[in-house]
Amino acid sequence: MKKKFKRPIDLKKIWETCRHLKIEDIKEYRRLRKERRERILEERRNSPRGKQMQKIYGFMNRFSLFFHALLACGINLGIEAVSRHSLIEAFQYMTGVPLVFLYNAFMIFCTFSVVYLVKRRVFARIIISVLWGFIGVSNGYMLMKRVTPFNAQDLKVAKDGVTLINNYFNGFELMVLVIGIAAVVAWVISMWKRGGQYQGKLRRIPALLGIALCIVGYIWITDLAIEKRVVSTYFGNIAFAYEDYGLPYCFMASVFNTGITEPNNYNEKEIDRITENGAINKNEADNKSQMPNILFVQLESYFDIEEVEFFTTSEDVTPNLHQMAQQYSTGYFKVPSIGAGTANTEFEVLTGMNLRFFGPGEYPYKTMLKDNTCESAATALAALGYGTHALHNNGGNFYSRSRVFNNIGFDSFTSKEFMNILQTTEKGWAKDDVLLQHIEDAMNSTEQQDFVFTVSVQGHGDYPAEKVLENPRIKVEGIEDEALKNRWEYYVNQVYEMDQFAGNLVKQVEKRKEPTVIVFYGDHLPTLGLKAEDLKGRYLYDTNYVIWDNIGLTKEDRNIPAYQIAADVFDRLGIHSGTVFNYHQERRKTKKYLPDLELLQYDLLYGKQYTYRDHTPTKEGHMIMGMRDVTLDKIIPHLGAGYSLYGTNFTKSSKVYINGEKQKSTFLNNTRIELNESELSEGDVIVIRQMGSSDTVFRSSNEYIYKNGGLEVQEGTGTDLSKSWVSQLHEEKK
Question: Which segments of the protein form a coiled coil according to its record (predicted)?
Answer without folding.
Answer: none
